[in-house]
Specification:
Elements (H helix, E strand, L loop, with lengths): L2 H12 L14 H10 L4 E2 L5 H8 L13 E3 L4 H14 L3 E4 L16 E4 L6 E4 L4 E4 L5 H9 L3 E2 L22 H4 L6 E7 L5 E5 L4 H7 L9 E8 L1 E2 L3 E9 L3 H14 L5 E10 L10 E9 L9 H4 L5 E2 L2 E3 L1 H5 L6 H4 L3 E9 L5 H15 L6 E9 L1 H9 L12 E10 L5 H16 L27 H11 L4 H5 L7
Parallel strand pairs: 2-4, 3-4
Antiparallel strand pairs: 1-2, 5-6, 6-10, 7-11, 8-9, 8-10, 12-14, 12-15, 12-16, 13-14, 13-18, 17-19, 18-19
Helix pairs in contact: 1-2, 2-4, 7-15
Length: 493
């Protein structure tokens, strides 16, 4: 028996009295090596250790909590990520890379009987007031980054919800500031990347520009592990923002107001998100099972009449007012991404707003929700506008892997939350029916899917005009298929 295995076994036995480790474990060869090289503070092998449990069970899609990694390892820097990948590769183990675990796809940031690389210890961040560039590591949430940069009256373009992690930017990243500045990935200026080989490189417009292109919304960890982001920060001050809550059936008015905003709004400081919810409670012909939450965010103190079409619709609650960016990131309530953890699954569609696609998509969603009342606890549909100002801002910064056609158009995101105590057979049946509904909804030709909210079986990358280029980049930086074979993620096959 190796000394590492002896150490792991001894720790598992002796520390039971301290409540930190469990009964005998059988970690993989990779885990043994990582205990030796990084120690037991950074490599957790006991399935009863609170740190292991937290890493394993903090997914937004709680179905992923069923996986049991052989160990969880917490790197502190790029060199340790490099050493971990080399160890995993040598052992032949599977692995996963996790930031905050918001992606709902199985095995994208979770792993069964392999090594879970949890980046939560990597929380360094800084600001250069000479260049106005911001630098951060991948372990923070967006809200933590917003709070840090607020002291400089700056922010970064990132997720709309406080507790979502920075991995979102690698899939594009939609922000309330995107109509002004493009997607989150468009603000990348330089990335520190650990390649599948373990080599640590810089990706930017000048160094490894092909890799830089792929990481700007083209597949997340497919090309390597990003361990540091240098991005263009943006000025931030007081915003005028909040939610409108509509109950009962106002869907036609809300959809038309949303369509008109997508088509005709000319103020890039004005952003919206339409979030239409259907509950599993009966409709009773009064729309009592419906609630629409409009997220309205204006980067400034006076939105003028930008939201007049929405406030004119009868609503139950209006929280609009002056807010800090911290408060905006906590709409509707703080800890939303934590409180809403459940058996959640994303799917995506894409539509233009100058035809009836916006209404067809909603009608199919609503009909499915009404005919499957026992199959979900909660279901919602979001309309995410992509205005011309956003696509112009993206192109002005070199563009991204989506090669976004000129706006306006919008992404329709579907979220299904299934009951916790149903059988696997019933779960699979519900998911198949939900997939059929989404897949049967016509999408606009020539527009890319949104990776952040796409299901793995939708082959989102194949909707990118850059797909063949991305395949070549993948082959160059993962030539032996280490990441392709040993961790989950978007397929290039």
């Amino acid at each position: 028996m190796s000394s590492a295995r002896l150490l792991v076994t001894a720790l598992s036995m002796s520390s039971m009295a301290f409540g930190l480790f469990g009964f005998f474990e059988d970690p993989s060869a990779a885990c043994e090596s990582l205990v030796t090289s990084l120690g037991t503070e950074q490599t957790i092998v006991s399935h009863l250790d609170p740190r292991y449990i937290k890493s394993r069970t903090s997914y937004w899609n709680q179905k992923l909590n069923a996986h049991h990694p052989a160990c969880v390892v917490y790197p502190n820097n790029a060199q340790e990520v490099s050493d971990i990948l080399k160890t995993i590769k040598e052992s032949g183990s599977r692995f996963a890379i996790k930031s905050r675990g918001h992606n709902t796809n199985d095995l994208f940031s979770s792993v069964e009987d392999g090594v879970l690389i949890d980046l939560s210890h990597m929380t360094g961040k800084s600001y250069d007031d000479t260049t106005t560039l911001a630098t951060y590591e991948p372990g923070s949430s967006w809200g933590e980054l917003y709070d840090f940069y607020q002291q400089h009256d700056r922010t970064v373009v990132g997720g709309r919800i406080h507790d979502v992690g920075t991995g979102l930017a690698l899939g594009g990243g939609m922000s309330y500031l995107s109509p002004q500045y493009g997607m989150a990935c468009d603000s990348f200026r330089e990335l520190e990347v650990v390649l599948p080989s373990g080599e640590i490189v810089t990706a930017s417009a000048d160094e490894n520009p092909d890799l830089f292109f792929g990481l700007r919304g083209g597949g997340g960890n497919a090309f390597g592990v990003v361990t540091k982001y240098t991005v263009q920060s943006r000025p931030i001050g007081t915003l005028y923002a909040g939610n409108l809550l509509y109950v009962t059936d106002h869907h036609e008015q809300i959809l038309n107001a949303t369509r008109d905003f997508i088509l005709y709004n000319q103020d890039p400081k004005a952003a919206i998100l339409m979030n239409y919810n259907v509950l599993s409670t009966p409709d009773l012909e009064f729309g009592l099972d419906q609630a629409c939450v409009m997220f309205l965010v204006y980067d400034g103190e006076d939105p003028g009449d930008a939201y007049a079409n929405f406030t004119a619709i009868p609503h139950l609650v209006n929280t609009m007012g002056k807010k800090t960016y911290h408060e905006v990131a906590n709409l509707v309530i703080p800890k939303l991404a934590v409180i809403s953890r459940a058996n959640n699954v994303f799917r995506i569609g894409v539509h233009r707003a100058d035809d009836n696609g916006y209404m067809v998509a909603f009608d199919r969603f609503y009909a499915w929700a009404q005919s499957h009342k026992l199959d979900y606890t909660y279901i919602h549909m979001d309309y995410n506008p992509v205005p011309r100002s956003l696509t112009d801002a993206s192109k002005a910064q070199g563009g991204n892997a989506m090669e976004m056609p000129d706006g306006p158009w919008f992404w329709a995101e579907y979220t299904l939350t299934t009951p916790a105590l149903i059988s696997d057979k019933r779960y699979n049946e519900i998911q198949a029916s939900f997939k059929e509904m989404v897949d049967g909804t016509p999408n606009a030709e020539g527009l890319p899917y949104f990776l952040n909210e796409a299901h793995v079986d939708q082959d989102a990358l194949k909707t990118f005009s850059s797909y063949e280029r991305l395949k070549a980049i993948k082959q160059k930086y993962d030539p032996d298929g280490f990441f392709s074979m040993k961790t989950g993620g978007w397929s290039f096959s």
